[in-house]
């Protein structure tokens, strides 16, 4: 027997309809790519997005067609998203930090038909124009004045399209499982793979992240998503901010400490979200300028592990609460959030810190398990490492065009590629990427844990730990160190720094000083490249063994 | 093109699975019907609910069969809900405050097969046993000790069923549109009609109400739902509390001020929800005993309009924030909530109060419109009255067995039967029930607004306003007053009390003193009965007119 409630498909156009109807005059403020601060409202964004929908229809875009965006966080980018998704086309967000080869690969793989770009990226598109045969039309997200410097043949002007088209168009009305968005993984192993979000998955992710224990945002918030819409959907904020009717502040391309601080103070930002690097830059700027944060209450940090110094800095110097979040392109992206439960909430601030540094717990809608190599569940004791697997209505089921084959286990869980622990409070902590974990004598050593401690050495700028082949133990850790400018150091100094802070058997067998530790497109250490560079390296302990 | 995210049906069993997995040791504390406080956990409730599922299967319950509950808010009631819904049967909550005829009508209409009852209600069931032929089995929610006084032939003992059955049973795995719950409207006009909730509608209602601007509850809350599970699903708290992992405190049958206060203080309740009467009793108790509220932070009030004195009392005497909510059986039930937006949040407390007394704004998932008799949309100016219509994934589509026919308009909206205004901030305020609004000379007069002012007269215990036929104006208002014990008053005193507080043309044409103002099963004034009793009444102004 089926229930008799209304049939109301979960399509994301309804989110902007809601914002227009009930929060129409709420502001969306952008630092435009052209420079000035631009102010608009949800009602105006709604109308302009509808005009864009008609423009896309005029360009021959059909439901299911991929329309790409290569753009910063601005009101125009929001308009493009809803204009594309509202008519059942697929919004494919391109990450401008990818290498040009990857960018071309992704555009071709997605078969993008129309591409929206900010002025910033016109040169790179022009350079690679011949390599993107599927792209029939480029739209530059600027006005006629901005177009004057654009030399891309046949490029259209965003503001012209808005002006020339009617806002009279029907949105939605299709199956809620219709594809809405496409985002490729950063592809540290093999080619990037596409995650094809549905309207339903985006809508459910929005509802879940609106919860008090996830983003916990409200109509009283002023939200600054520094996390880019081009990478993991700005953690869904382009959906959740209009969903709650919060004022939205878009930083454009200026993500340095001074620019972010200026926006926070001038617009009264109460809530922000970004990767640790952005917050580190902000803290440094604030300290240098003796700046204050008079309105900011909460920041959510994800993308990589949050350094303790950032949590303390925000808390002790600025009275801002930091929440650690974890997720990935494949989880839409928010998976867990380190929001205290009742027990942890009763602990003192120092004890709570231990949990704030973990990636956190799963909201309703994310199932999570830890398993060993045989896919057997492991205990949630806070110390047992295992592969982290997740399941839920906004977790990937398969990659676009079937890349990577069958990616779910027999219980329907997706392997995140992370190695983690889960404690008795349900707090998950990533200890490593599965491919980076060092398997020594059948036990696992976390490369990240060693790195985090090693980088605390006053002479270290960057540290990386990889596993090197060992005849007896299979693998043993090697620490690579890039020193700060002008510093000199010895292997012994670094080993002494680690002593007592990690298990003795985790101590690296060698320390190698390097002049470069390469970072990937998302700012994380590129261990694949490091391993390539270290090919031919032999552990001193392996040599001893071999010659013994 | 369809998205490629996981297929994860929204079935409510997953809510309790989540609570068990991540908040398994979180307590559920009940004031049992037998008397003592009983403590359990989500993990234990999960296991016991699974045992009940097997018990129900053993009793021949099939997917789609209706299983009724006639019970107070307790942990056992929660177990029954999930045990029933988990296997695709339909949990039909019976309201013990209904008249026996209505109760029998509803049980027969629903064709309930098994009926769970608290000890409290065994006598009424026994008395009406012959009138409920579909009920094959009665289960009394008590232990073997409690069964000693039960003389219902063949009644089963809840704890026996739990003990005798295995927890090994599969939950869910069916279409998310499968019926999960059934609740009948109070039926002030005609027979009660059934609202058949689906797993999807309950799940989406849960996610929406978890939002910061709706219930805003978290794993740090201790939640006391005084609102009964038997009426409008305890505002969904039996779903949303486990969904966030909050400690749940169930009041059983004792809803008086002293009992509620004792539970709040002994269990550290931070959040509660109830109708105004309950809060009035609590405030009275606190004032009489000089009691304090040391942990309570927020109460949500709905079911009928919140008197200003309650909001002020909680705020000024106890530092507790009151949020007004509106909904109905047909909206699962939460429709709107008077949570401030950014603009209102900046007003001072007195100005905010004006909005706190409104029924509030719609979250994402509730579409709302005001229309006139011709179904044309009316402006949101805060003063224009109109019929309130709603739409959304947890709003009724049709009543059980098609009762009432086609209940949606051409845009898919459901007519709430309320008359309301909506202001520029999107705050809706109920001004009357459509059938109670007084249509005088083509304009509408709110009976409720006059009642609320009239009842502020120091001699008044209860007031009701109805429309009486008038030859010139169609209808004119009549005020019925039930005085406090020992008081005497005149018509002129009451009219003078209203003067200047309502528009002159709203002034009742007559004041009638009565010894009874009847209340319906949900505690609201029964105007249908009042109108029956007033049959034959002629307005003095109508007589004047007639004899003029």
Description:
- The structure is a homodimer of 548-residue chains.
- The termini of chain A are far apart.
- The radius of gyration of chain A is 24 Å and the shape is globular.
- The mean pLDDT of chain A is 95.
- Chain A has 548 residues and is of the alpha/beta class.
- Helix content of chain A is 30%, strand content 23%.
- Chain A has 18 helices and 24 strands.
- In chain A, strand 5, helix 5 and strand 6 (137-140) form a beta-alpha-beta unit.
- The first copy, chain A, has an 8-stranded mixed beta sheet with strand order 2-1-11-10-12-13-14-15, with helices on both faces.
- Chains A and B meet through helix 1, strand 9 and helix 8 of A and helix 1, strand 9 and helix 8 of B.
Gist of the model:
Two copies of one chain form a homodimer. By secondary structure, chain A is α/β, with parallel strands linked by helices. The longest helix of chain A is centred in the first third of the chain and has 17 residues, at 42-58.
């Amino acid at each position: 027997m089926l229930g008799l409630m209304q049939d109301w498909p979960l399509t994301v156009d309804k989110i902007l309809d809601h914002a227009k109807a009930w929060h129409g005059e709420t502001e969306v403020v952008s630092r435009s790519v052209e420079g000035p601060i631009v102010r608009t409202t949800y009602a105006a964004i709604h109308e302009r997005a509808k005009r864009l929908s008609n423009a896309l229809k005029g360009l021959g875009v059909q439901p299911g067609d991929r329309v790409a965006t290569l753009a910063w966080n601005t009101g125009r980018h929001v308009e493009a998203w809803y204009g594309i998704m509202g008519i059942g086309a697929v919004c494919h967000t391109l990450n401008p930090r990818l290498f040009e080869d990857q960018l071309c690969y992704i555009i071709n793989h997605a078969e993008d038909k129309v591409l929206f770009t900010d002025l910033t990226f016109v040169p790179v598109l022009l350079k690679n124009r011949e390599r993107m045969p599927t792209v029939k039309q480029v739209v530059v997200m600027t006005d006629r004045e901005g177009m004057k410097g654009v030399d891309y043949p046949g490029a259209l002007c965003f503001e012209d399209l808005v002006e020339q088209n009617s806002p009279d168009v029907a949105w939605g009305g299709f199956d809620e499982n219709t594809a809405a968005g496409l985002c490729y993984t950063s592809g540290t192993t093999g080619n990037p793979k596409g995650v094809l979000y549905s309207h339903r998955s985006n809508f459910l992710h929005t509802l879940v992240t609106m919860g008090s224990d996830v983003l916990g945002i409200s109509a009283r918030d002023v939200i600054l998503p520094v996390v880019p819409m081009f990478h993991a959907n700005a953690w869904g904020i382009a959906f959740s901010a209009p969903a709650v009717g919060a004022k939205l502040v878009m930083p454009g391309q200026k993500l340095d400490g001074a620019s972010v601080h200026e926006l926070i103070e001038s617009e009264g930002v109460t809530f922000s979200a970004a990767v640790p690097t952005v917050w580190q830059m902000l803290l440094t700027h604030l300290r240098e300028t003796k700046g204050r944060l008079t309105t900011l209450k909460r920041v959510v940090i994800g993308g990589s592990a949050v350094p303790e110094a950032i949590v303390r800095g925000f808390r002790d110097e600025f009275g801002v609460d930091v929440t650690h979040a974890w997720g990935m392109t494949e989880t839409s992206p928010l998976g867990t959030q380190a929001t205290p439960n009742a027990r942890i909430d009763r602990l003192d601030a120092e004890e709570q810190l231990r949990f704030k540094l973990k990636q956190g717990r799963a909201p309703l809608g994310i199932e999570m398990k830890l398993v060993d190599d045989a896919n057997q569940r492991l205990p949630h004791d806070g110390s047992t490492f295992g592969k982290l697997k997740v399941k839920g209505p906004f977790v990937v089921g398969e990659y676009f065009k079937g890349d990577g084959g069958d990616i779910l286990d027999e219980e329907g869980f997706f392997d995140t590629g992370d190695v983690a622990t889960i404690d008795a409070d349900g707090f998950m902590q990533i200890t490593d990427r599965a491919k980076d974990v060092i398997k020594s004598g059948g036990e696992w050593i976390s490369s990240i844990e060693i790195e985090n401690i090693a980088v605390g050495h006053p002479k270290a700028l960057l540290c990386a730990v990889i596993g090197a082949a060992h005849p007896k133990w299979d693998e043993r850790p090697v620490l690579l160190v890039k020193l700060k400018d002008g510093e000199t150091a010895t292997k012994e100094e670094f080993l002494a720094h680690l002593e007592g802070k990690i298990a003795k058997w985790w101590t690296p067998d060698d320390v190698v000083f390097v002049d470069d530790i390469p970072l990937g497109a998302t700012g994380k250490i590129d261990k694949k490249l490091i391993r390539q560079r270290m090919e031919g390296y032999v552990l001193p302990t392996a040599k001893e063994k071999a010659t013994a």
